[in-house]
Design brief:
Number of strands: 30
Distance between the termini: 40 Å
Shape: globular
Number of helices: 19
Length: 640
């Protein structure tokens, strides 16, 4: 396998720096930051990826001035104490042979922070639609001060022992606000599109001449393509990504979820092949794909950030010929959802991400210490529990009433948004469960479980659709899950009654529209997908609009009769609307499948028993996998 990945695993020189391979952890925010300085958790997070043999880590964006703080958890590259923080990270990363860069950043008018927000500044006084910020234009002397601040921050990075500096002018942040014509309405010397970024690069080079220097640009920006030839001679590398923070459609590209295609950056790199080594980032998660693209000249290295968030040992496994053991990124975007919520980075698939100091991998027990662990339910919580137990060396029996593993994510896999997630999640667990005794199509009773004589029981029986308890007559009525698992396929005029709390109704609307149905999505909330991460939600809304799906918001279901479905305005319930339909699909949330747990508790099972996932209370994939992992860890601890 190492020979098969010869391009990806070969060294690469970037200016004065030699990378051991071409796998890059590109700049991404972790929120493992306190008072704008890296925490012990931040150091451990980066060290884990260095130990896994990543070639280059570009530390997350650090603000070059207080006005550039994107959130309250942005590193302050202008603070003197950042030098000690850099040294701590550098010591932990470089001892593993990994190179460490930092990204110098100013968001300009783009601010994610909650109130009280600092005054926003930009090249011009133009409001930003997405974050609803309304900046003032920087004065000429303030722009010059910011240029000097980049230089000061570069000096601090050099003093901190870093190997390189990346200046970001991507994603519609301040650099692009100067060189993108529609964002720059200035009449002073900074009206020239390239001037601000050129001055910044020269200031950084002068302040840190011994460090590698790169520029990050958005490959899908016409303005970036125009300015790149002027910037390339000033840097040691060019780093490409996709997306624009300022717009609802453009922001999706920053971390695009499925069904955005993997490797989408590959089609956008050619105009930036200007001499310096090219790093390309965006939806590159498969080492074999990255290797092939390097071999064909698409780029010289690839940012595989989400793949490394999921499995920090991916490079080492790839080099050792163990690619089948790589834990795949499923594209769920839990990582960036935590950032937008201003909480520490997490990964749904890998509960140890961001918890490197508190949730170590399980130690494998000796044969004499093996326990018999019985897990009921092979959805995400049960799969995680089984994987944790078998990784620790225990005997595991996994029982599932369906004929497939994956639970609700497998059902959702019928829809475009979840097809890749379902395949990746089940493939991950298929490789983790080689030594698990898996019994599919097995409906078990409390008596049957007792008869197995388990030493630890994990209940992970999941959830079922919540019923609607009012009159629904004279019309075909089905649950969203029935549509997605193929057991029901309504036709004609279909109304989907959506409580707005999860993506099931959105998936149904997309599937049924593709079947040729006339679909109305009636949402009993302010908007569809209120709990769905904004990048996925924005994608859904774009696809549904293109598919001709009608969306009626604030529609709470009241009743149905004789081909008419009645709704009440959720804010003014006395206002009623009736819509004609041939079929009604219900998506009104879920309720726990907890009957088996109650029966076992009534039997006073002698072994410890813990519940995990939706049978405790329906929530999401992240909670299910975390709770399955912790249930085994905590349950086994009681037996020690």
């Amino acid at each position: 396998m190492a020979l098969a990945l010869a391009h990806l695993l070969s060294p690469l020189r970037i200016g004065p720096v030699q990378l051991r391979n071409r796998i890059v952890s590109s700049s991404h925010q972790t929120t493992l930051v306190h008072e704008h300085l890296p925490t012990d958790e931040f150091v451990a997070y980066q060290a884990a990826r260095a130990a896994g043999e990543t070639g280059l880590i570009v530390m997350e964006a650090v603000a070059v001035a207080p006005s550039g703080l994107l959130t309250a958890h942005t590193l302050g590259g202008y603070l003197e104490p950042i030098v000690d923080g850099y040294r701590r990270v550098a010591t932990a990363v470089q001892e593993h042979g990994c190179r460490l860069f930092v990204q110098l950043f100013h968001g300009g008018r783009e601010q994610i922070a909650s109130a009280p927000r600092a005054p926003a500044v930009s090249s011009s006084a133009l409001p930003s639609a997405r974050y609803h910020t309304e900046p003032r234009a920087l004065r000429t002397d303030e722009v010059a001060e910011l240029v000097a601040s980049y230089g000061r921050c570069a000096s601090l990075a050099a003093a901190g022992g870093l190997d390189g500096i990346e200046v970001t002018a991507a994603h519609g942040y301040l650099g692009e606000q100067f060189f993108r014509p529609e964002y720059n309405l200035r009449t002073d010397r900074y009206a020239s599109p390239e001037r601000f970024v050129v001055e910044v690069l020269r200031a950084v080079r002068e302040a840190a001449p011994g460090l590698a220097l790169g520029i990050r640009l958005s490959a899908d920006s016409e303005a970036a393509r125009a300015i790149a030839p002027e910037l390339a001679p000033l840097v040691d590398y060019v780093h490409l990504a996709v997306g624009n923070s300022a717009t609802f459609d453009g922001c999706i590209g920053i971390a695009p979820p499925p069904p955005s295609p993997q490797d989408l950056i590959g089609e956008l790199t050619e105009p930036f092949r200007l001499g310096p080594p090219l790093i390309a980032t965006t939806r590159v998660v498969d080492p074999a794909h990255a290797d092939a693209m390097i071999g064909s000249g698409v780029a010289d290295a690839f940012g595989m950030t989400r793949a490394l968030i999921t499995d920090p040992e991916m490079p080492r496994k790839a080099r050792a010929g163990e690619s089948h053991r790589v834990l795949r990124c499923i594209g769920c975007n839990a990582c960036i959802a935590h950032y937008h919520a201003e909480t520490p980075i997490r990964c749904s698939m890998n509960p140890r991400t961001g918890r490197e100091l508190t949730l170590p991998a399980p130690a494998r027990v000796a044969a004499a210490g093996r326990r018999r662990v019985v897990v009921i339910g092979a959805g995400p919580a049960g799969l995680a529990a089984a994987a944790e137990a078998v990784a620790a060396g225990h005997e595991v029996l996994l029982l599932e009433r369906r004929e497939t593993i994956g639970g609700q994510i497998t059902i959702a896999g019928a829809a475009p948004a979840h097809a890749e997630q379902a395949l990746a999640l089940t493939a991950n667990y298929a490789s983790l469960l080689d030594d698990v005794d898996l019994a599919l199509g097995r409906v078990v009773s409390a008596d049957a479980i007792v008869a197995l004589e388990p030493e630890l029981v994990v209940i992970a029986t999941g959830a079922r659709p919540a019923p609607f308890r009012h009159a629904l007559e004279g019309i075909e009525v089905v649950q969203a899950w029935d549509v997605l698992d193929g057991s029901a396929r309504p036709s004609g005029r279909v109304i989907i009654s959506d409580w707005g709390g999860d993506p099931a109704a959105l998936d149904c609307a997309e599937v049924l529209a593709a079947d040729g149905c006339e679909v109305t999505l009636a949402v009993g909330a302010v908007m569809p997908g209120e709990t769905v991460h904004q990048y996925a939600r924005n994608q859904y809304l774009g696809r549904l609009a293109r598919a001709g799906v009608t969306i009626a918001d604030r529609h709470g279901l009241v009743a149905a009769a004789d081909g008419e479905v009645e709704f009440a305005n959720v804010f003014a319930p006395e206002l009623r609307t009736s819509l004609p339909a041939d079929a009604l699909v219900l998506s009104h949330g879920r309720v726990p499948e907890d009957a088996l747990e109650a029966q076992l508790r009534a039997r006073a099972l002698p072994a410890p028993m813990l519940a995990a996932g939706d049978c405790r209370s329906p929530r999401g994939l992240e909670e299910a996998i975390l709770e399955g992992t912790l249930a085994v860890r905590d349950g086994l601890a009681t037996l020690a």
